């Protein structure tokens, strides 16, 4: 039954019948956490490669996955729903927050473009410059609220 | 000092001086968990979109991120290091495990190709067929060992 309902939902969505919206605040928080957790996991995997403790076979894919995910992140913060690890300053200083997030996505998009052009080794030399996570987390993330 | 050493490592890696290898078993387990956690977070985000509780703006990016990450997963299991949530059967039945993982990656690669061709809505109708997570987890993952 669950499956039928789900398929119905998807069909309705594809047909433009439903106008999907965030169902409630928990969904909004869950969604942005899925995205930020993805960034964290992929940055950690890439970090292991940069530290030469893991072979670099997947390095290009990690850079591309980071770039794709960074491009999705700002959208997930657009609903002004306080909670999770986000400080209220995310929305109080939205211009700064969104500028930082866009720059982060832009730097990773450039890195991803270079990787696709076959310049993975050069990208690995500089990619930590693109991973500006800490500067933003210091201002906008409350790690004490981590689940 | 840490930073200097790290840069030295990266330069050496880029120059082909270092032959990086997994430093120890914990690194191997951590690395594959970063990849499997990425799949879990991205599948959950896509699931929220399929359930129409989150707007579908990022749907294409999630499919592409899943495809990229699936393409990196098998490599992370190649070192035969028991532990984490992996059952010993991963390596006892390597032919079946790797076949399933390759099929998973292949299905998502096809979905990603369709998304890039602009057919995201059609992909969303069928993408759950590609997310064969449960069949593999039932055989090869011990969730009780989850951290």
Lay out the secondary structure.
The structure is a homodimer.
Chain A: H1 2-14, H2 25-50, H3 59-77, H4 89-92, H5 94-116, H6 120-130, H7 133-140
What is the oligomer described by this structure? homodimer
Tally of helical segments of chain A: 7
Q: Any idea what the radius of gyration of chain A is?
A: 18 Å
SS-based class of chain A = mainly alpha
State the helicity of chain A in percent bands.
Answer: over 70%
Number of strands of chain A: 0
Could you tell me the mean pLDDT of chain A? Answer: 88
Task: State the shape of chain A.
Answer: elongated
Major sheet size, sense and barrel closure of chain A: none
Low-confidence runs of chain A: 1-5, 11-19
Strand content of chain A: under 5%
- Helices and strands of chain A, in N-to-C order? HHHHHHH
Largest interface: A-B, 49 and 49 residues
Distance between the termini of chain A: 32 Å
